[in-house]
Amino acid sequence: xxxxxxxxxxxxxxxxxxxxxxxxxxxxxxxxxxxxxxxxxxxxxxxxxxxxxxxxxxxxxxxxxxxxxxxxxxxxxxxxxxxxxxxxxxxxxxxxxxxxxxxxxxxxxxxxxxxxxxxxxxxxxxxxxxxxxxxxxxxxxxxxxxxxxxxxxxxxxxxxxxxxxxxxxxxxxxxxxxxxx
Length: 181
What we know:
This protein is of the alpha+beta class. The chain contains 4 helices and 13 strands.
């Protein structure tokens, strides 16, 4: 299966879910135009209190649609934007990519992966009891697996729409696995 964008979303306010839309515009070094998390410095509310001048490593949130299938098997009915992501993907194993991977979306946009989204209790509050546990797992060694998507910064901007292709533009060979950001 070819990797592609299946949905895009943004919200100008800090709410948990984001409504889907036809197109989002990504701005280099800032994020999604019109989204509450757009900015060169941290925009996440809990992080604003601790480190307001820190660089924004969470400009764009991507989630793989395959998570929705997994969540449905656990009894949760999810769709694009419901976990607060800006870009819902299909056909690419986002969680296995290393830090620093660059993804091309459509013809213009280049994102650089900065880390994993660290799920919080708001998932249970907004999706339902047990949802947070469903987006966490354990590997064979017992290490925690965070499945709630990845975060990225915008290297090259442009418009992203459902149906746009996704390509790996750069895959670092000396970078470690994604960690929560």
